[in-house]
């Protein structure tokens, strides 16, 4: 078992560079296999989800080369291989292979996805979209069997009952080769969706409207290879901004390779707390702050406050003065970090579906468990703020989404290590 050990209470300062977006790249890699020649992705983070996706597409027949943060994917020999079990089951983003394979081959056999346990995250919207395009779907022994009823998919008008990033991307992937035009309404607007649409368009697709609430896709016969740079990871950036905002001394922390417009709602909340920042074109410098004000946080789909950032911000809120609250309207079950932060001395409780925070708190080290990816990030932030030693188990969740987190925190002056037990 691997664990992260943090000896906290150190002053952190310096610069941290943000990697490519995890939530983009887990869709960009499945999208790449739809091309008929090599696709080069630049800025690919070194995370376990990427390693798992590479293993999956290699099983399908793709050739993959990695040099630093550049991934070259040759999909020339990719076949419609049934993937009912194995790596596919452990990875939430594996459901993008449903849309990619259905779009490329008009058929797919893909095991049901895993990932973090954040409560019900059904794929009904994905399947509803596939059916509207003309796919027949069967669920047998925990795997989805999808096939174009008439041998090929046809354009359709689809209205999404709920805003869903995963369903928006998946239906987009399935639609690029359809006959005619597909219109998808009430879609998600996240930057990661624009990133995937940009890749598809550079490959020869005709996707319009990504970033708005309606996407229009005109089917094309072929997709070719291209070179694409992954957008910066706004969730990783927000996590380090929260850590930087908690520093009371030192020269401050500069978070580079970050886009302000992707983080506007989060940065406005930091400003409300009294955090002093210098925002530049591709970086944000955070000054030390001795007194923070408590805030009320409610998550919403983009451009609202991101559900993925409420947990890291909660650790920062433990340093603020007053009474604050966090309500996640997207994943109500995303509260398993609460008892772990309480174990570290945080005055924090769950009341109905709200997290209530009293502060300021003096945190101390403890043995804690990461229940999911962003809960793990919250515990890393808390461990660095606490006095004494914090040991975090279930670190596989953290390594799924944070590129070189040990090395990046050490560069800032943190005392952190990954150990094997």
Termini Cα gap:
5 Å
Order of the strands making up the biggest sheet? 21-22-1-23
So, CATH architecture of the largest domain?
Answer: Alpha-beta prism
Unreliable stretches (pLDDT < 50, length at least 5) are none
Characterise the protein shown here:
There is one protein chain. The protein is elongated and about 65 Å long. The protein is α+β, with helices and mostly antiparallel strands and 421 residues long. It folds into two domains: 2-18 and 233-420, UDP-n-acetylglucosamine1-carboxyvinyl-transferase, Chain (Alpha-beta prism); 22-229, Enolpyruvate transferase domain (UDP-n-acetylglucosamine1-carboxyvinyl-transferase, Chain), CATH 3.65.10.10. β21 (367-369), α12 (373-385) and β22 (389-393) form a beta-alpha-beta unit. It has 14 helices and 23 strands.
Summary keywords:
421 residues, alpha+beta, UDP-n-acetylglucosamine1-carboxyvinyl-transferase, Chain, 2 domains, 4-stranded mixed β-sheet
TL;DR?
With 421 residues, the protein is of the alpha+beta class. Helix content is 32%, strand content 25%. Helix 1 runs parallel beside helix 2 (48-59), helix 6 (165-175) packs parallel to helix 7 (191-202) and helix 8 packs parallel to helix 12 (373-385).
């Amino acid at each position: 078992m691997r664990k992260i050990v943090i000896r906290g209470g150190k002053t952190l300062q310096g610069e941290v560079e943000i990697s490519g977006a995890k939530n983009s790249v887990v869709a960009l890699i499945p999208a790449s296999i739809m091309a008929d020649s090599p696709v080069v992705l630049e800025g690919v983070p070194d995370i376990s989800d990427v390693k798992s996706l590479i293993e999956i597409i290699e099983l399908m027949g793709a050739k993959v080369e990695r040099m630093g943060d550049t991934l070259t994917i040759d999909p020339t020999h990719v076949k419609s291989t049934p993937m009912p079990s194995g790596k596919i089951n452990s990875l939430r983003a594996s459901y993008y292979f449903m849309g990619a394979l259905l779009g490329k081959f008009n058929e797919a056999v893909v095991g049901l996805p895993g990932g973090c346990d954040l409560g019900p995250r059904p794929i009904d919207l994905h399947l509803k979209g596939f059916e509207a395009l003309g796919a027949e779907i069967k669920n047998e022994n925990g795997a989805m069997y999808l096939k174009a009823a008439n041998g090929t998919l046809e354009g359709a008008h689809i209205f999404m009952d709920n805003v869903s990033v995963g369903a928006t991307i998946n239906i987009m992937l399935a639609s690029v080769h359809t006959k005619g035009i597909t219109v998808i309404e009430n879609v998600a607007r996240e930057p990661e969706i624009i990133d995937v649409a940009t890749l598809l368009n550079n490959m020869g697709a005709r996707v319009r409207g990504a970033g708005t609430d309606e996407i229009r896709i005109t089917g094309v016969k072929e997709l070719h290879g291209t070179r694409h740079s992954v957008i910066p990871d706004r969730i990783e950036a927000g996590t380090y901004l929260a850590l930087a905002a908690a520093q009371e001394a030192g020269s401050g922390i500069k978070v580079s390779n970050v886009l302000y417009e992707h983080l506007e709602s989060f940065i406005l909340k930091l400003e409300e707390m009294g955090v002093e920042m210098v925002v530049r074109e591709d970086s944000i410098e955070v000054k030390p702050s001795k007194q923070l004000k408590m805030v009320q946080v409610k998550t919403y789909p983009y451009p609202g406050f991101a559900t993925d950032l409420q947990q890291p911000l909660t650790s920062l809120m433990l340093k603020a003065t007053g009474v604050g609250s966090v309500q996640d309207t997207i994943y109500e079950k995303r509260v398993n970090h609460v008892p772990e932060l309480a174990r570290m001395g945080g005055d924090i409780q769950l009341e109905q579906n709200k997290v209530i925070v009293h502060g300021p708190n003096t945190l101390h080290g403890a043995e804690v468990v990461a229940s999911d990816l962003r809960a793990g990030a919250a515990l890393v932030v808390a461990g660095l703020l606490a006095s004494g030693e914090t040991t975090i188990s279930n670190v596989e969740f953290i390594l799924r989404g944070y590129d070189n987190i040990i090395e990046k925190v050490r560069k800032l002056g943190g005392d952190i290590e990954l150990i094997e037990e």
